[in-house]
Amino acid sequence: MKTPADEVGMKTPAKKVTDIDDLLIEILQRLPTKTLLQFKLVSKQWLSIISSSDFSIFHTRFVLNEGSLKPSVLFLDAIYRKPPTKFVFLPLNRDTKQLPLLDFMNAPYITIIQSCNGLLLCTYDYDNQSYFICNPVIKKFKMISCPMPPMLEYHLVGVNLAFDPLKSPCYKIISIWQEVLLDKDEENNCLCRMTSNFSMDIYSSETDSWNVSKIKFTSEWAIQFDHAVFFNGAIHWDSVAKESLYFDVETECLMPMPMPKPSRRYSGSRYFGESGGHLHLAVGQNPGYRLIFRIYEMLVDYSDWFIKYRIDLEAEMRSINLKPPYCDYDIFCLVVRSDEDKGDSMVAVLQCGTTLYYNFKDKEMEVRTDGPKANGYRYDIARFRGCEYFETLSCV
């Protein structure tokens, strides 16, 4: 039905706004990601704007600058066995009831390796070393093939993602290869020995190409190159040794990084990640009915770590009526989170499926019993690393 303004060729205030793309973009970028997905149905103009790569980076930068980009869930089941099976996840806010499926990927046994500002680095079919970058929100993905070394003298030990939308809409992928020495024993059997020599390849989405053997280095430390955290413009690797490494992506410099050395009793679950603009390492143990945690934080100058929190949840654990066997209360997933308003907190998933949400500021603990039970995964427990999921419109 036409309005009086339509009859005389006049534009309503709302029509004038939608005719000015710049003003419309300024308004739309302030909306949550889920709302924008729904608003794609308003008109072809809105669909075109919201789907554009320019708007996606505008929106991502806006929510980052406003401090409103926060993880909505923690992925726990890192192996996506067969689409459209859902990942096992823990909601971090009460608004998240379900997640986008990876049904747009026609591949089983997808494994999440890393989450970085809205993009997921995943792999499938380990034998072919097939990787891809995806954003489940916009249902887009890009296949990435790691270049194979000319000789079978290197073994792939890690693939990492670096993406900072505040600096660039492009991302980089780092692959780490460890040198292998081939030899034969007295019975002419082939032997393989891993050396301390490594090679690094760097992929840039801007050029869609690899720079092979860009950096070669030597390391004697037991560094987990398959467990990386992108933070402050650099990729950091966890290590149980007294020293690790981090790689400045922009300057392409590899630097040493000290690691805290927890006592042997803290040999259980371990968290290495970024929260609240700081690098954290969390370790925990379960001596019987108790749960004890230490949370380390890296100094700004990277000179050392300090113990930020040490907590013993003996009283809290007794209050939830523990029943034998106490091994069911071992920690198999641990995450540290920071919130500007609520302060620092910790999420610990126990093997029995109980999830503990502990707030260091209020010293209060919330207990939920709807988490996954580790005994249902048996030998796959090592894959649970609490991968945070961010909802953005970032392009791949």
TrEMBL record:
Recorded superkingdom: Eukaryota
Pfam families named among the record's database cross-references: F-box, FBA_1
Gene that this polypeptide is encoded by: LOC18600182
Chain segments annotated as transmembrane: none
F-box domain ranges (all copies): 20-59
Protein name stated in the entry: F-box protein At5g07610
UniProt organism field: Theobroma cacao (Cacao)
